[in-house]
Design a protein that fits this description.
The chain is an all-alpha fold. The protein is 70% helix and 0% strand. The longest helix has 37 residues.
Length: 368
């Protein structure tokens, strides 16, 4: 799910070396978003169970075990984000970089926060809305460090993206991007993240994000591979990032088999999904998917960010209305809920992002 949060990593239209626009990357972003949606609708317990009327484990006796791996779509997003931010920040001044990221993220985010707050405030909706004060703070995208209730459940990933952008802007974009500087950035960040793991320094942990850093760094390394596939340093960055990244993913998502647990993810399954993210972006970086040059992939990519923002909480409302209100089967409800969120994403993209993104970018670029 920002900034180019999961879902907001739009590939620049300018050419970036061999291959021009990477449409396959747009398609991969939508795949990652659908993975996360599957997790939120049928791969976890909690408030979505209230929407279904029972645990998704009962609604999807077999599929819930596979849906549970969908949360790793976030890690796939982070790899994509590392790749795209390295590409879009190359040769761009700091002001332009900031304007591009802010204008890409904020319009849809602001509308999503207001929309979810308004829907949850309706008398017919049983989910509790955040307080008006907390909703206003959410518009800053700084609710996580401020300890304020979140309007959007997925916004924790945006906070990770914001920190990545800040690090990349200060260490690479501000002094000027070049290959040596990017390689040093990856090496120093990797070392700092490893040190932070056991340093017992909360501030260092917040800044370097040891549990997410390998995925961003791996994506940056894959863009270096995209530039020069023979670069041993780039491949080394990718390999080390994958090795550390799978460790953190297994550490946070694996647990011993438990009959009372919602689902059981095997360590091999977790490693396989993480590997899929790295391999898929690597295939795009190496040009193996250049044949996937269909225009509809660009449209699909444009829906990813607004879909990611609204699908979880508004999805609960739709699931409740379709499954408990209209008594539709679980599978039909799942499909219609996903389709309705994609339709809403299309509306947000057309009526919010397309008109407001270029205007906000122009204002921020000209600002002194």
């Amino acid at each position: 799910m920002l900034v180019d949060p999961p879902g907001a990593t739009t590939v620049p239209r300018r050419r970036s070396g061999p291959g021009g626009r990477l449409r396959a990357l747009d398609g991969l972003r939508l795949v990652a978003a659908l993975m996360v949606a599957a997790y939120h609708f049928g791969g976890r317990d909690g408030e979505v169970g209230e929407a279904w009327g029972s645990s998704p484990k009962e609604q999807f006796p077999t599929l819930h075990e596979y849906f549970a791996y969908g949360c790793l779509g976030v890690q796939v997003f982070f790899v994509i984000s590392g790749f795209v931010i390295c590409m879009s920040g190359w040769g761009r001044p700091l002001r332009s970089f900031f304007a591009s990221r802010a204008s890409r993220l904020l319009p849809a985010y602001w509308v999503a926060v207001l929309l979810v707050t308004a829907v949850f405030a309706l008398p017919v909706v049983t989910y509790q809305a955040v307080s008006p004060s907390d909703a206003l703070v959410n518009l800053t995208m700084l609710q996580m460090p401020l300890g304020v209730d979140r309007v959007l459940g997925v916004c924790w990933t945006l906070w990770a993206e914001v920190r990545f952008y800040a690090l990349y802007a200060l260490c690479v974009v501000l002094p000027g991007a070049n290959r040596r500087r990017v390689i040093m950035f990856c090496a120093v960040w990797t070392l700092a993240a490893v040190i932070a793991e056991n340093a017992d320094m909360p501030l260092l942990d917040i800044v370097v994000m040891p549990e997410y850093a390998p995925f961003f760094i791996g994506g940056v390394g894959l863009y270096l591979v995209h530039q020069d596939r023979r670069d041993a340093y780039a491949w080394g960055i990718v390999a080390v990032s994958w090795l550390i990244g799978q460790h953190y993913a297994v550490q946070s998502l694996w647990h011993a088999p438990d009959e009372d647990g919602f689902s059981y993810r095997s360590s091999l399954g977790i490693i396989a999904v993480v590997t899929f993210g790295f391999v898929a972006v690597a295939a795009i970086a190496l040009g193996w998917l250049r044949w996937a040059d269909w225009r509809w992939l660009t449209v699909a990519g444009a829906l990813t960010y607004p879909f990611y923002l609204v699908h979880e909480h508004l999805g609960w409302v739709v699931i409740h209305a379709l499954h408990r209100g209209l008594d539709l089967p679980s599978g039909v409800t799942f499909a219609l809920t996903t389709a309705s969120m994609l339709l809403l994403a299309r509306l947000l993209n057309h009526y919010v992002e397309k008109p407001l993104t270029p205007r906000l970018r122009a204002v921020l670029t000209k600002a002194r």
